Each structure stands twice: as structure tokens, then as C-alpha cells.
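Researcher: Re-running this chain for the archive, since the previous output was lost when a drive failed. Same request as before.
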Amino acid sequence: MGMFTKLSTVIKSNINDLISRAEDPEKMLNQIIIDMRDQLAKAKREVAAAIADERKLKAQLDDEGKQARDWEHRAMLAVKEGRDDLAKQALMRQQEHAERAQVIQQTWKEQATETESLKGSLRQLNDKIEEAKRKRNLLIAKQKRAQAQRRIHETMSGLSDTSAFEAFNRMADKIDEQERQSIAHAEVTEALGGDSLEQDFVKLESGTGGGGAGVEDKLLALKSQMGLLGDGAEEPKQLEAGDAPAAQAAAPPVQDAQVEEVSEAEADSIPEAQLLSEFEELEGKQAGS
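Model: Regenerated C-alpha cells:
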């Protein structure tokens, strides 16, 4: 058992040394398994030598037993032949071999017991190495999972730092501001670079240059609806740009003198209270008639 105690001490010291210098757990576990196998091979050689010694002792024991039996047979033969002197010599030799056989038998029993114990220890060591080989994959998987979790925690720690997001938001605000400034510069350039006269005509063509012509057309349409225009009078039409003087010259005279033509400028200049008073007066005259 002393051999296996020494072997266990060597294995533990090697493992502790590897662990203390471990950088890559997977490589270290593989190296430990290799060292265990080397120690197992040495243990097998030691056990094999012990078994050989045990068998050698057994052979010596068998030989001494055989010699003792042979000298006993010789003594019996001498007695039959009446040679007591030879019988005594044979019995002395038989006694010597018997004593040596007894000593060897005791040594052989101890050696056989030790050998069986070594075999058992060797089987246990082999089983432990096989178990270590099975656990190696589990330990490597745990180590890889721990590394992955550490990387995840490091990544999450980096994401918890808001400086990067703040910088991103500041850059987004800067880009938005640049876009607003670009649009403003474009509007200023368009306002300063255009032809004002052309823009006025564009407003006239779109009907937004003034409301006088629109009110005149509405007034003519209202008179036509009320039958106050002659049969040959033209329907009010939308004036084209640049045709305002001609349209005004071609407009037919109003047949009813009671209806006064009111321009938009004049209507806008009459206060609302006065306008309502005049309409009430008109309504009173119409009711009295």
C-alpha cells in the first residue's frame, strides 16, 4: 500500500501544480488526464512486479514442499531397507525443507494478500481516471458557460454606460439642426432670387391678386339671377390676366337705378352697424310697398 500512497501523493502534487499554473482549464484538464494515465501505467508495472514476486514465492513454496515430501519418501525407503542411518539423514533434510517451506508460505501469503490489495487499488485508480475523463467534458462545458456568462455581463456593463447613447442623441440633434438651416437658406434664396413682377402676375392668374374682380362677377351673377339684366347681357365671366380694362368697358349698364353698384373697397369701408341700418331701411321700404 505504500506504493499507492506515494503514487497518490505524486498525482496530487502534479495536479496542484497544474491548477496553480492553469491558464486554459480545458488544456489543464486534458493534461491532468494524461498525467493520471501515466501514473496508472506506472502503477500497473508495479502491480505486475508484485504479482511476479508473489508467483515466484509460490513456486519456491511448491518446490520446498516437493523436496520435503521427496526426503520423507526416501526416509521411508531407508527404513524398509533397514538403513536407519540413511533414514535419519533423509528425515533431517525433510525437516529443513519443511521449515523453509513454512517460512516461504508465510511470506507468500502476505505477498498474495498485498497483491490482491494492489489489484483492487489499481482497479479503483482506473475507475477514478475513467470517471475523471467523463467529468472532464462536463467541467469543460461549465467552464465555457462561465466564459459566455462573463462576456454577456461585460457586454451588458458596457451597454449600461449612457455616454454612447448621449453622444448619439447629440449627433442626431446636430443633423436635424443642419437640415433646418439648409431649408431656411433655400427659402431665403428663393425669396430673394425671384422676379416680383412675375410673382404678381402669377397671383393674378391664380385669382389671389385681388378680390375686386371676384366681387364684380358675383354682383353681375346676382343681378342676372334676379332678372335685372337685359336679354343681351353677357354672363359674368372670370377675367383673364391683363384683360381687366376691356372687361370693365364691355360690361352692360345696370337697368335698375335703385340697385347701386358697390365695389369691394367701398363695402369694406362701410361699418357693419351702418350697413345693417341701411339694409333694415331697404327691408322697411319693401314691406311698405
